[in-house]
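Quick illustration, no need to memorize.
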Amino acid sequence: MTKKDAQKWFLEILQKRVESFAKALLDAEGDWVVKGFIDLYEKIYTISADTKVVSKLV
């Protein structure tokens, strides 16, 4: 397998994986299903639209 073939293969696998995350995390309108996190002490942390936060979630 050439480097270019490996890159293409990896991109295809990654795109399929991202699609599965979107189905689990977004509703039909594209809004987040998950609105935040609750820690052990029941403190609620909302999710921002910051790409760093979103990437950590996924």
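Residues 3-57 form one domain.
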